[in-house]
DNA sequence: AGCCTTTGACCAGCG
DNA sequence: TCGCTGGTCAAAGGC
């Protein structure tokens, strides 16, 4: 099998490209961080990216992701909904392109509105339209000292569809390094890569099966790229600070392998994919088993029900997962929008830890797009301009939270 | 029972 | 041939 490392260190051309970027800018620079004492990562610049910032949908200054919640959305079942990126619809080229562009800009929007200076972390600012009671707001203000924070997990951008096609043409091996700021209290800091859409795109946690440094059996430590992987070896490679783990795709006759290096604190420092899946992603057989995908209704209700949980210390830990998607008025005949999740990894996965007094009645209500917008979708006039005013809109969804407190 | 991780041993390529 | 290295195998054990 011809194998070749793509996106390996640093092609100068990529570093000069403004679009190349994302991944590069999110990489921790290893070479110069020897004295930092922090996590060190191999610098693996992305391959040349065919997309450029200017070509993409851009988010005007001052516009927060929450603004996109104005977009109409049909989100009864995100997973099942046919859409250009779920693979259940044949995607017109134009639409495909817009997905790729939106992907990029969405990523940009993810970091910028929260903290442009530090793409790795941002503060979570509850949406003003959230159904938080005034008392809750007061409490929220009073607790600024323990402000809700989300550790934002950055991932490489070379997982755009455009990149995929370029990569697929030249090699079936992808190597990338991803700095991942994992939530220390949860093994499931994960970003997800739609591997079926993006084929072989590395994802830190994403592809992370239960690693040896994970707490086995605790939390979703699954193959977040949608495929199932089995670890078949681990080796400490010379020159590498951390051991390298070897994984195989568990699908019969699938020869795809992936390697990744993981630091002691759980951070993924390098991922290498070898081969290409010649099979669709397996259906998740159980929660967290593969890609932690459940039906939208099921997942939401599950997370909603968990919102009120607290641990023994009165600490309430919420895990908020951001989704970013594109809405396509794909089929006017059936009066339906198709919401396509662009991949959570583009948007980040964050942990929000929020302290709530045991006796407090304050509960944080999730900022959901679907709640606000379903009514809009149910507009009487199926062809109203209002309905389709956002022909292609980026939508941010805060898909509720997961509480890790013991029930 | 099945699937997974762990881990030492084994194998192949290379200088 | 030998030693080194990266990759893989497979038994054992956990979940």
From TrEMBL:
The residue ranges flagged as biased composition, category Polar residues, are 286-295
Q: Does the keyword DNA-binding apply?
A: yes
Q: Which residues form the WRKY domain?
A: 224-282
The UniProt entry, under InterPro entries, shows:
WRKY_dom, WRKY_dom_sf, WRKY_plant
Name its cellular compartments. Nucleus
**Keyword check for Hydrolase:** no
Q: Where is the composition biased (Low complexity)?
A: 7-24
Q: Main site of residence? A: nucleus
Molecular function in Gene Ontology:
DNA-binding transcription factor activity; sequence-specific DNA binding
Supply the alphabetized keyword list.
Answer: DNA-binding, Nucleus, Repeat, Transcription, Transcription regulation
Segments carrying the region annotation (Disordered) are 1-38, 115-142, 199-227, 273-309
Q: Which GO terms describe its cellular component?
A: nucleus
Query: Known Pfam families for this protein?
Result: WRKY
Q: What is this protein called?
A: Putative WRKY transcription factor 20
Biological source species: Gossypium australe
